């Protein structure tokens, strides 16, 4: 029998419920019981790239867009982008629809970035005049000074002299021990508006499943939902090619295309599954 997934770890929970009690037995008895049934834990369908599903999700996003529920629409478009098959026009159309929302929000830099993605990913030629008109409109509004100053997918670095002892902190920022709060940073000199005085990269980051279409799976940033899909599965998105490749190198290559099996086979909550990924990233086995 297959242990069907009704939630994270549902398959393992079903197996544990079925497991008999072995009085005075050592752990090998339980191990053997589980090993005999391990194939059933993995006998669950994976969600895979599917243009038909991508089109359905995009239409749901269109409905939300018309209702001006822009955040929900962006999330649905992102899911559509994840389901779009490689080299299909559904991918380009998803990016284009995202650009329409950014244009409505006055986020013209994000709109132009997504228009470029649409043009690079098989956006239909018959619809291209509409996309090009949106591009010209965005550029005209930026030329007219209507920018919000947005920089899509920014990568900030300390732009003043670095502290020689703490290289990710600006020179002139020091460490102080506060009796009530513990250690903290303190400015030892005046800084100017626009000075970047701290650029500390997180050691470990992971997302809950509810954020798979809103936040980068590697660094967890949102960037207003402007994310790139994993080319191999439908469950992970990234803020940049850099983050995609980094996550693939350290973690995602082990889970890509088998997310449903992993969730079914683990006897844990969604948060505990995320903690497992954190431990894996940290090298704890």
TrEMBL record:
Q: Which residues form the MYND-type domain?
A: 216-256
What keywords does the record list, in alphabetical order? Metal-binding, Zinc, Zinc-finger
Which InterPro entries would you find in this protein's record? SET_dom_sf, TPR-like_helical_dom_sf, Znf_MYND
**GO MF terms, alphabetically ordered:** zinc ion binding
Q: What is this protein called?
A: SET and MYND domain-containing protein 4
Task: State the organism of origin.
Answer: Culex pipiens
């Amino acid at each position: 029998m297959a242990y069907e997934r009704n939630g994270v770890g549902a398959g393992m929970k079903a197996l544990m419920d079925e497991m008999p009690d072995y009085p005075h037995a050592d752990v090998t008895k339980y191990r053997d019981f589980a090993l005999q049934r391990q194939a059933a834990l993995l006998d669950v369908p994976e969600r895979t790239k599917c243009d038909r599903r991508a089109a359905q999700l995009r239409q749901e996003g269109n409905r939300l867009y018309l209702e001006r529920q822009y955040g929900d629409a962006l999330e649905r478009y992102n899911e559509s982008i994840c389901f779009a098959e490689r080299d299909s026009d559904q991918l380009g159309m998803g990016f284009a629809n995202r650009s329409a929302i950014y244009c409505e929000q006055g986020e013209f830099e994000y709109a132009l970035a997504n228009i470029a993605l649409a043009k690079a990913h098989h956006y239909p030629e018959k619809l291209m005049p509409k996309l090009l008109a949106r591009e010209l409109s965005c550029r005209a509004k930026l030329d007219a000074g209507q920018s919000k100053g947005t920089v899509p997918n920014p990568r900030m670095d300390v732009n003043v002299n670095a502290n020689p002892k703490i290289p990710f902190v600006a020179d002139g920022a020091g460490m102080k021990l506060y009796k009530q709060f513990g250690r903290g940073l303190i400015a030892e000199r005046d800084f100017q508006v626009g000075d970047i005085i701290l650029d500390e990269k997180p050691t470990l980051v992971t997302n809950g499943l509810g954020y798979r279409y809103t936040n980068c799976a590697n660094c967890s940033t949102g960037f207003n939902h402007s994310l790139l899909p994993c080319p191999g599965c439908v469950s992970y998105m990234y803020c940049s090619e850099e983050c995609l490749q980094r996550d693939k190198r350290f973690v995602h290559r082990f889970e890509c295309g088998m997310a449903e099996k992993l969730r079914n086979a683990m006897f844990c909550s969604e948060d505990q599954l995320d903690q497992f990924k954190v431990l894996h990233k940290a090298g704890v086995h």
